[in-house]
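REQUEST FORM: STRUCTURE PREDICTION
Request ID: SP-0412
Submitted by: Lab K.M.
Chain count: 1
Length (residues): 544
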Amino acid sequence: MTMRKSWRQGEHYVWGTAAAVCLTLLIVVVLLLVVMVNGLGFFWPKELVLLRLTDSPPVMGELAGREPGQGDQARYGGDNLRIKVGNRDLYGMDFQWVKGEAVQQVETPPDAVMLERVEFGNFYGFLKGLRLKDIAAPQGKDAWQSFKLARSQAWERKEALLERLDDLMELTQETEDIRLRMARLRHENSRAGIDGETPAGELARLQARSDELTRIFEERNREIVEQTRALESNKAVFADSAGNEAVISLTEIVRAVRPNSMGVFAKTGFYLSKLGELLTGEPRESNTEGGLFPAIFGTVMMVLIMSVFSLPMGVVAAIYLREYAREGLLVRMVRIAVYNLAGVPSIVFGVFGLGFFVYGVGGVIDDVFFQERLPTPTFGTGGILWASLTLALLTIPVVVVATEEGLSAIPRGLREASLALGATKFQTLVRVVIPMAVPGILTGFILAMARAVGEVAPLMITGVVKLAPSLPLDGQFPFIHLERKFMHLGFHIFDVGFQSPNVEAAKPMVYITTLLLIVIVLVLSITAIWLRNSLRKKLQTATF
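STATUS: Completed
RESULT:
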């Protein structure tokens, strides 16, 4: 009887719902744990192991994995070992399997060096000496300390040269702006039927300034090239575990540590420095090394631009459908169309954005405002503006549906009371209905934002790139460059995980980028949820 009663009351539905929620939470927790375990430990400096083998030269590197093998070695139980040997310029690979029965001796030499380089990945070996040209070797120091001080001096000079190079790029931009002004003047003169210069000699003045800037550019560029060559001649000599020497320029060594000699505090400092580089640095090595700042910046800026368009348009459309439009066949068809748009594959929106925004609107803008730059397109190619507008169209149905639900949840009596007190329909909408529907509107915004952050397919054809040379926001007028291409964390995951020439070595970066993308979604969502709850409490307090 009790079971029948419970069945009639529908308790099995409650238990089924609770089980589904628990299963969903478990899947999410497991996903986060997998990403965190594989991502957070990547930057911690690992012990360098030197394996002396019976039938081949020694192998040194980081222990990256193992599998059951033959033999009874004391330290690793005869397992076959997967070693990250690095030294890609010497071996052409990052990993090597070593059979357990071939391991004769296992050592962890305290003087083993791990070099993080600009190219060719990590180098594992031993310091042999220095070959310095215009950097004085510090006196009274051992070889390792002398190397660290010389490398520090080399990188200080390299950063100074990079700053001069940035100034040179600004000079190049100024020269390009002058040439564009000259082209615009010539175009205006040809339209007006004027041959040659303007009466004020503006073209001659601009040409003289352009020639002067070109001369200054060539002189400074020649100086930078000469100083760079001289700086690159300062090198250090290293040897791998087999004795093969590698001569490496000091300016190519990003970091140099002896992980087997590092304590907990030294390893913690190294870990924090790598995290800092991840959040603020530029990518290198085909995006498999270095930082992710351009991708983080591009992702956040794209979401903000998308929100500026999708939220107002979605809210206005929902208000019209719910508050002003008369119920009928046309309104029902519009609602069905909105619901169907929410299920359209994202790549379809990308194709629409490419045809309508990039080639259509962007082409018109180039014809009207940037004719002197044609046939090179300015807005008629992919950029962060068109990618954001495409994602705005993608997320508007979510905002419309959530806003309509929020508006429908407001009691009709409140509207009637406001109208009875003499307020107009617009005043009732602005002062009563919309403020009370804000929590529902923000719920739709949260869902739309979470979906937009993870979309990649539409971006691949509307503006995202593997490596963006310039950010969409910088210190050059007009400061916000919506026509520029940008980097995105989602595309970075795809590129590193599936397009990298060395996928196995790049796998940890995939987990790190995934974790970072999840953190950004959580931060943006938590901020919006906090704002929604604050407004809800404020409205409840005002009601009482």
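NOTES: The CA atoms of residues 298 and 441 lie 25 Å apart.
Reviewed by: T.R.
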